[in-house]
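U., I forgot to send this yesterday:
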Amino acid sequence: MRFFSLFTFATLAFSAVSAAPVSKSDNGIVARDNLYLSSREIEVLEARAGGDHKASKKYVPPPPPKVTFEKGVSAHSASNHMDKLNLHGDSRKQVEGYHRHLVEEHMKTIPGAHTAVVKNLAHAKGSRDPHIHVSAEIRDKGGNIITAPRRGNPLVMDPTHHIYTNAADPANGYHVLPHAYKKAVDKHNAIGEALPLFSDTKGTATLGELMSISATAAVNYTNPVFVVMGEHDLHFCGGNCYQLPLNGFANFVEASNDFFPAIQKFDFFIPTNIAHGINLHFGAPDVFLEIQSWIAGLA
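Result:
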């Protein structure tokens, strides 16, 4: 009798809690009693007494990302800019992740901020703000733009926020940028589409123009001179330091020897694939070694 009672109790307990068998195929389709449902339509079932099942939750798609990247508005739009820099795969994810995190952190300080669009990646050129920053448009939950005071004139409100890459020290915002972004920008600045434009619009600071307008030579200077200039220096060589040999010299950099007629030792070095601002390029350490080697040779 005891055995029969225990068996009967176990049978009743098992029948009180039951659920229809569910299996999932490799293609993400769920089969239940020969009924096929898309994985997006799956209902979460709760086991209830007597097999009376009731749906408690439905699949809810994830919310859209708070921070997106502007595309197609102009060549400088964030997404288009990443295309121009040939940022793809893991490198693009690294750059997007950095900018998204930077903007999200800034949004935490803006009351009512709900979504944001990165309009321009980290930059300083072409902006009234000389420090490296990200330009982003921030909106509230109703879709209204949250304006920001203009730098230098807080009485004027701008539709975009300038978010410094280094808020603690805005003037030093380059070193905190992700490696993939600095590498891509470095390469683009050296050999990108900007070279022809700078060559056509170069100012009167180029070596070639200084020579052609008879700049004053340092006739009393007699110490050794070592001129180092990147192959693609935009400001002093118009993007090509090997162009237009002058007075029998092979290139612009060597031609600068004319400015120092009284010196006994003149040398020059043109590092390849480097533009203006040598210390901002990844090849800078090699250039510094060359300079140190030259100085050591003077001793």
